[in-house]
Amino acid sequence: MAYPGTIQLDYGSPYETTTIQLYPIGQRGETSDGSWYRYSLMGSVTGVANKLYQGPATAVSNWTTQEHDIDLAVGDIEISFTDGGTAFTVNQLEGGTILVQETDDLGHIYRVKSNVVTAANETICQLEDGVTVQVAVADLTNNVLTANLSPWAEVVITPATTPTNIVIGAPRVIIAANAYGWVQSRGLASTLAASATLPGNPSMVSGTGGAAGIAASQTANITGYVGRAMNLAIAGDFAAIWLECE
């Protein structure tokens, strides 16, 4: 089923969760006050309300820069991806992408509609409707592909160390493990505060899992702007923030 780029939500929708999928992963919704939300799939751990979440960590050694085994031809609507040891499940790549990484291949990126598993380490990715391979790529050494899950699929709380994906926002309610719900990405929200950020000041990913903190407290490895403080935050409590994750 096709949906418009942004659907209108009532104010109660961000508090609703389901165990069945109602919208495409990553569908954007907007409430009347202009706040944005993304329809997300929680990872394998029960979620926590009003903490920052990120997209799933990529299996770097097995999903990035993998040599492909089947030539890509202009007009193809499917791409075969062979992983390096971490297998995909059926439709795990829904809403994700396949990146053709080598410079000579022009770095084309293709959105995945669905995927089927045909062998232990091979998945066939069906490209989104209307998307086709633009440049032929031969099965040669150093012609490599990278698979990325949708940032709104299998989301996890931001770690206390370096983030392993982009920060997508904060859910307003608890979303059960492997369940679906809305994660707020823009607008007035509540998040756990890691520091006493002053009103109007930038808030960043902090060294406290799921919390936002003052920009000046960041290190080179823990960065990422997420919004601005709405009022004086008290470290360890929840605080009002204007989220700007997109």
Task: Describe the structure in your own words.
The chain has 246 residues and is mostly beta strands. Helix content is 2%, strand content 38%. It has two domains: 143 residues, no CATH class; 89 residues. The strands form two sheets. Strands 1, 2, 3, 4, 5, 12, 13, 14, 15, 16, 17 and 18 form a twelve-stranded mixed beta sheet that branches. It has a six-stranded antiparallel beta sheet with strand order 6-11-8-9-10-7, with no helix packed on it. A hairpin with an 8-residue loop joins strand 13 and strand 14. The longest helix has 4 residues.
SSE inventory with pairings:
Layout: E1 6-8, E2 17-18, E3 28-30, E4 36-42, E5 53-54, H1 60-63, E6 66-67, E7 78-82, E8 97-100, E9 109-119, E10 122-127, E11 144-148, E12 153-157, E13 167-171, E14 180-193, E15 202-205, E16 211-214, E17 225-229, E18 238-244
Parallel strand pairs: 1-3, 4-12, 14-16
Antiparallel strand pairs: 2-14, 3-4, 4-14, 5-12, 5-13, 6-11, 7-10, 8-9, 8-11, 9-10, 13-14, 14-18, 15-16, 15-17, 17-18
Can you summarize this structure?
The chain is mainly beta and 246 residues long.
Keywords:
twelve-stranded mixed beta sheet, 18 strands, 1 helix, single chain, 246 residues, mainly beta, six-stranded antiparallel beta sheet
